[in-house]
User: Fold these one by one.
Assistant:
Number 1:
Amino acid sequence: MLDLKGRWVLVTGAARGIGRLAALKMAEQGCNLILHSRDISHTASLEEELKAKGIDCHSVAADLNDISSVLKMLEKIDALGVDVDIVLNNAGFQIAYRTDYYNTPADDYEVSFNVNTIAPAMICYHFLPKMVERGFGRIVNTTSGIDKEPEQAGYSAAKAALDKITKGQGEMEDLEKIDELAKHMQKSSLCALGQTAPNPILSTMKFFKDEYVAHIQDKTCPAGVCKSLIRYEIIADKCKGCTLCARNCPVKAITGTVKQPHVIDSTKCIKCGVCMSNCKFGAIITK
Ligand code: SF4
Ligand code: SF4
């Protein structure tokens, strides 16, 4: 099991349900917590409970339907001066169930994409570079099987988009579609919220286009973090044959004898990252 003691975890939607339980579980593992909710008072009792157990803990607030609020929250987290090692993008918003598909209002899409796709994406993009720089990080994006429900078209589309981004199943045409949709949204939105909502997407597409292309065309994640697109490898020259990785691999995907380079069987590997965290010689990399 990965040693998470002292790691800082951001849990969105931590006030109740799965988010609250996840926060408590991470605290049991020795993690420190940053608890997100819409209003800081919503996580006050959980913060108190965790602090009573000796856990270092902060509450932050943001309306995930308001991307400027999300960005302000990220600034506040930065100001805490802690390194966020793990992000659990748990918060989500489920729109109304509509059997009258053709009358699905545009709002369903706008709110759903803000909360379920754009906000988690912004949170990922904020913390990912720092995780890569430090050589450790985990991000869990919560989606659901709801991505095929016509009665919740806006919600389904938003979750499907998040799934697609996370799994690296994009196609080059998607970039044009995203660009077109984002610009259309800027022009057709009635309020400043809608007009500015696509800005983060457009700016990441402008400044990190090569990363989008790598995910789509090469099916690789240059940052080495998208689970579906990476594979773990042991660099033979660096491996000291200490056996620690093999002993800790939960699916016995690593073989090798003492003082000899070890090897990972990628057909068995479930990409949990335990070996990489355990290796003291930096011999395990993601590709
Ligand atoms: S933990 Fe690192 S050094 Fe030890 S056997 Fe595994 S890869 Fe080699
Ligand atoms: S990443 Fe793969 S090889 Fe490494 S510990 Fe996890 S399952 Fe085993």
Number 2:
Amino acid sequence: MAGQGVGFSELSSSSNGSDNTKRPGTPQITPSELSRPVNLQRIAQRKAQIKTYPVRKKLEKLGVYSSCKAEESCKCNGWKNPNPPPTPSRVDLSQPLANLTDPCRSCSHTLGAHISHLHDIPEDELNRLLCMVIDVENLFMCVHKEEDADTKQVYFYLFRLLRKGILQMATVTVEGPLGTPPFEKPSIGKAVLNFVLYKFGHLPQREWQIMHDLAKMFLHCLNHWKLETPTQKKLHSQGEDLAAYKQNYTRWLCYCQVPVFCDSLKRHDPTAVFGRVLLRSVFSVMRRQLLEKFRAEKDKMPPDKRTIVLTHFPRFLSMLEEEVYGDNSPIWDDDFTVPQSLSLGASRITPLTPLSERGDSLVATAR
Ligand SMILES: [Zn+2]
Ligand SMILES: [Zn+2]
């Protein structure tokens, strides 16, 4: 993944680069940094590594997140090591630190009594649970480091959800009043394709291709966009429905943003599950920051890309803005059809896939 980053995901965060020595789970890292490629890679490495541990060690690790089965009345929900190593950084984490007969610091029952349910479990399932443990540890860090109260609350909810998932050896799904994706129809992805057909469908192939690429770039940016917290939003909101924004922000955290670094949760692309309401709430800020970023980076781009990004893209965004905020735009019609006057090749009406992480010339430019 290294080297193709656009850095869009970092746009709204003030800290950039230079700290390649940090590890997830260490105190210096902040929750918003967890989704950066270098940290995602470390999380993936930890998950790969933990799968190579001896089974005894895996069971010990899971025991910390497993309820005690010694007697019905014991409510202990995780074995606590009575002799935690004084300098954890010095011990070999891949080796067992405890015996099955070691008593729990909390309930005094043995480690064995906390993991008795795991003995006949296939190793694949143990591995899945261990990956959830790593996600739980990262969420634990997020809960403690996050300063925004709304975001902290969501981290805590997800932390408890995954912890319960490990206890019950279940797969986790976010439930409750948030609803399930897709949250709006048509999706932003569909509406932006409609927009390109509606406004540029008549153009010759070469110009059409430019607009089509800009649309893909726009969707890519949106999929990597960090939404403002409801508190930040409130500071410059003009008569917007803040309760609705907060609900979408919570959905975005649970279904899009946290699953980036927490793959026990299913990830959805924002452009596939959100629609006009979300786009309206982020468009102005996003447009301004994107254009600022491109202007700042213009000297690093080859001349032809510079024209596309500095001339065509602002115009593209202005035209899109009208359709986003306008009351009667057809691009949001559920049954949008290509205008009759256009005879389009099939290639123009296939769904727009946002740029993948690699291989797109426009986005690579903005590195
Ligand atoms: Zn117990
Ligand atoms: Zn216990």
